Amino acid sequence: MDFSMSERAQQIHQQVIQFMEEFVYPAEEALHQATADDRWSVPPVLEELKQRAKSLGLWNLFLPSAFSDSGLSNVDYAPICETMGRVFAAPEIFNCSAPDTGNMEVLLHYGSEGQKEQWLTPLLNGDTRSAFAMTEPDVASSDATNICTRIERQGEHYIVDGRKWWSSGAADPRCELFIVMGLSDPGASKYQQHSMIIVPRNTPGVELVRNLTVFGFDDAPHGHSEVVFDRVKVPAENILLGEGSGFEIAQGRLGPGRIHHCMRAMGAAERALELMCRRTKSREAFGGPLYKNDVVLHNIAHSRMEIDQARLLTLRAAHMMDTVGNKAARREIAMIRLLPCVQPAR
Ligand SMILES: Cc1cc2nc3c(=O)[nH]c(=O)nc-3n(C[C@H](O)[C@H](O)[C@H](O)COP(=O)(O)OP(=O)(O)OC[C@H]3O[C@@H](n4cnc5c(N)ncnc54)[C@H](O)[C@@H]3O)c2cc1C
After folding, report:
1. How far apart are CA 261 and CA 76, in angstroms?
2. CA of residue 229 to ligand 1 center, whole Å
3. Which residues make beta-bridge pairs with 13?
4. Does 64 sit behind a cis peptide bond, omega within 30 degrees of 0 on the bond before it?
5. What is the pTM of this model?
6. Beta-carbon contacts of residue 310 (< 8 Å; ≥ 6 apart)
7. Can you list the domains of the chain with their CATH numbers?
8. CB atoms within 10 A of CB 48
9. pLDDT tens across 108-163, in order?
10. Cβ atoms 63, 4 nearer than 8 A
């Protein structure tokens, strides 16, 4: 398998590396401090960096070649996405962060012209953010056919009624839309029972209950929220692709979305390893630096091998997505998600 990047991708990667060094790493402390001071508002420095990246064309690099001038394949994008993953806020600076990337792809692939104009364009411009609401507390949501939030047609509207959780980005003050998956026809065949619908964030009945934590972190100002949809009424034209297409869209969305998480996780793991190495040099115990202990060296070597294995598997999945398609690469995408240095990426 050939994992080499195109010349164009190599150029973009160099530009992203340079941008990270010049602007993102130096802003890390300010970004951290701003969120510590005011947890649920957006640090102004983040918006400044977004505008800077956008003006240089380092923007929406995740978009498949059919929709973007940068024309990157998954193999092309993998190292670039990994570089962004080295700083938690960086993917957003390049408008390449979850869940917006997955939602933009859904709107690109399955949205009507009207839906694209109203919801996709502001997302592509980085003016708004979005959330994807599939997972529910009441059912095992790894099996999308279990989803039981109701989406019921009533004249020229749909009524959305149910409870979701882990809706990433729902707490962001710039979040303007949810893409909600729900049960629209329990009587239909198994894979045609569900639909996806666009729910504007400010619709009456949308209630943000709380933000969940992962290993004690709330990911402010982004958040992973529990959200109640209490008989929320939305126009019928907000349905995506037509009633009964929810399962098909879910399958289409989760593949690319998941591999991007894995690419970013690789960057975070690589950065963590670098920090660990630095720490073992600077810290002394029993008359010498920590790295002089075999057990510490063993841990470093083990991490090196785990990251390299994960990267190779990620590139293999990316290569398969490029060559035989997302559907055929399903098994490979599922495997990389479970690797130790990638979990708990979803
Ligand atoms: C940080 C974070 C962000 C998230 N963001 C979003 C988001 O934006 N939108 C959203 O909708 N969801 C989001 N999720 C939710 C996530 O996608 C779900 O947790 C996931 O789909 C699993 O669903 P569940 O929690 O209901 O687990 P369950 O379906 O109850 O599964 C529990 C366990 O059983 C295992 N399992 C299930 N079936 C099988 C099987 N057949 N064979 C073997 N093992 C099995 C699963 O792997 C899992 O370990 C997020 C989660 C996290 C941690």
Report:
1. 15
2. 20
3. none
4. no
5. 0.93
6. 262, 265, 266, 269, 336, 339, 340, 341, 342
7. 7-97 (1.10.540.10), 130-244 (2.40.110.10), 249-337 (1.20.140.10)
8. 13
9. 999 999 999 999 999 999 999 999 999 999 999 989 899 999 999 999 999 999 99
10. no
Q: Ligand 1 center to residue 250 CA distance, Å?
A: 14
User: Ligand 1 within 6 A of 142 CB?
Assistant: yes
Q: Read off φ and ψ for residue 234, nearest 5 degrees.
A: -130, 150
Mean pLDDT of the residues in the chain = 93
**CA 238 / ligand 1 centre spacing (Å):** 26
Question: Which residue's CA lies nearest to atom 47 of ligand 1?
Answer: 142
Residue 97 and residue 41: Cα distance in Å, rounded? Answer: 17
Distance 210 CA to ligand 1 centre (A): 19
Task: Name the closest-CA residue to atom 21, ligand 1.
Answer: 142
Q: Name which of 204-208, 220-224, 225-229, 334-338 the model is least confident about.
A: 334-338
- Inform me whether the pLDDT recorded for 344 exceeds 80: no
CB-based contact 266:314 (threshold 8 Å): yes
